[in-house]
Design a protein that fits this description.
Layout: H1 4-25, H2 40-43, H3 54-68, H4 87-99, H5 110-126, E1 134-138, H6 141-159, H7 164-167, E2 176-180, H8 185-193, E3 201-204, E4 224-229, H9 241-247, E5 253-258, E6 283-287, E7 299-303, H10 306-313, H11 341-376, E8 380-381, E9 389-393, H12 403-413, E10 419-423, E11 426-432, H13 440-457
Parallel strand pairs: 2-3, 2-4, 4-5, 5-6
Antiparallel strand pairs: 1-7, 6-7, 8-9, 9-11, 10-11
Helix pairs in contact: 1-3, 4-11, 5-11, 6-8, 6-10, 11-13, 12-13
């Protein structure tokens, strides 16, 4: 006999699917963002002491999502490097959500564990990293960077005869941290959280495109953690990995590469030269929810040596089965965790190596096209476009910089969405093409919107 709760679950799931389909049907035609959406009816509908019916809750969510959710999946969002979500990834995430698996241990979900292991192996392969490397899925590149820094810290200290797991950090041999001047803030945060301290950082100067200048790379002595970047968040340029890694003392150094989106260049034969030597590092961080267009939140930390990840992340308990080297609770910071690998497996299984490469190439061509269209209209392109990031500055007829005003006008308009940044002392519009559904028609429409609003500020 079917339990009533099952009937309720199926009814609500069907209702939610219908609402989701309505949202997806409008994602390419509706306003990208509406900063003035009224959420009062949604937020005032219930309190902990005055709950509402489940159907009403779903209907409210759907109604307000149509007007207030930022449509990052419709091909016309170019703000933060969010990525979109592919159809297969969205559908697979629905199945994974229905499974509701905790993948801390293989015995808790054999199907999820098998998919995780295969997706991790495929990921390493598609990214062109050493076949002996181990990938572990986690919540985002911030977590991946932190995990890698913790593993690097422990491994470097072990080389000096210090066991941080038992002795802690008080009195430990010092570790010098060398970071790019353009390193992402999440990497700096990881240094803080790992107990290394920002005072330990030596900054490596960068060039006009945000790449570390190898001729000015600082000399170090003793234990050294080198933090480099694949894909500058403003320009898309990457550090010269082969040159820098070839100059460090590998016996006393660890090289980590933050490749949240830029590491995916190594999956495209025509772009691999941009990240030459990236495979020589000791660890990497990348997001699947950026350029692979998996749903949030899904990233991966990858270590060249499996034991370095296990040595730092392993935990033991009497109720935990021993002996499984792919227990996910031993490969990252979390014990309980969702089956993040399921959508990744679905993408890689259906797109394959060639499909992933083609999607990335389309984004890069779209970014180049946008730079070409706006440059031809008089915008200043502040850095060569090599990947999916475009930096632009705008002036009015009097020559005054109006970049911030134009960005504000674009965001208020809502037909497309770009963000602002500061680049080498100048205010700039930052454009990121990371939704693989973006078409040349989307780019043409976005460029036309920018030019139209620009003219109103002239």
């Amino acid at each position: 006999m079917t339990e009533p709760v099952t009937d309720d679950k199926l009814d609500l799931l069907g209702r939610a699917a219908g609402h989701a389909a309505q949202y997806v049907r409008g994602e390419r035609s509706a306003t990208v963002a509406n900063s003035e959406a009224d959420l009062s009816r949604l937020l005032d509908a219930a309190t902990p002491d005055r709950p509402i019916a489940p159907r009403r809750a779903l209907d409210l969510l759907a109604e307000h999502g149509l007007t207030a959710a930022v449509r990052t999946t419709g091909g016309r969002y170019f703000g933060f490097v969010n990525g979109g979500v592919t159809p297969i990834a969205l559908a697979a995430s629905v199945i994974a959500g229905a499974w509701d698996q905790n993948v801390a241990l293989p015995v808790m979900s054999p199907v999820s564990a098998a998919l995780d292991a295969q997706a991790a192996s495929w990921l390493v392969d598609v990214l062109g990293l050493p076949g002996t490397a181990t990938a572990a899925f986690c919540a985002g590149a911030s977590v991946a960077n932190l995990t890698a820094v913790l593993c690097a810290r422990d491994a470097l200290l072990r080389r000096a005869g210090w066991d941080a797991a038992s002795a802690g950090l008080n009195g430990a041999p010092p570790i010098t941290v060398v970071t790019s001047a353009e390193i992402h803030v999440t990497v700096t945060k990881a240094i803080r959280l790992a107990g290394l301290g920002t005072d330990s950082i030596v900054v490596a100067p960068t060039d006009d495109c945000g790449r570390v200048d190898p001729d000015r790379f600082p000399a170090t002595e003793g234990l050294t953690l080198v933090l480099l970047q694949a894909g500058n968040v403003n320009t898309g340029h990457s550090d010269p990995f082969r040159t820098i890694i070839g100059r460090v003392d590998r016996a006393r150094s660890w090289v980590h590469i933050d490749g949240a989106f830029g590491l995916w260049a190594n999956a495209v034969p025509g772009l691999q030269s941009l990240v030459d030597g990236v495979e020589l590092a000791d660890s990497w961080a990348t997001d699947a929810h950026k350029w692979l267009n998996a749903p949030y939140d899904c990233a991966a930390v990858i270590l060249a040596r499996h034991h370095d990840l296990i040595d730092s992340m392993r935990v033991d308990a009497a109720y935990v089965p021993a002996g499984d080297e792919r227990s996910l609770m031993n490969l990252g910071l979390q014990m309980s965790q969702a089956a993040r690998a399921v959508p990744v497996w679905a993408i890689l299984a259906t797109e394959g190596r060639a499909g992933v490469a083609a999607s990335i190439e389309r984004c890069c061509r779209a970014a180049a096209l946008l730079a070409e269209l706006l440059g031809a209209a008089g915008a200043e392109v502040l850095a060569p476009v090599v990947l999916n990031q475009v930096l632009l500055a705008f002036t009015n007829t009097s020559g005054d910089d109006i970049t911030d005003a134009l960005v504000a006008a674009i965001q208020a308009d809502g037909r497309t969405w770009m963000g602002a940044t500061t680049w080498q002392g100048r205010r700039a519009m930052r454009v990121s093409v990371s939704d693989v559904s973006t078409t040349p028609e989307d780019i043409a429409a976005a460029a036309a919107t920018v030019i139209e609003l620009w003219e109103t500020l002239a």
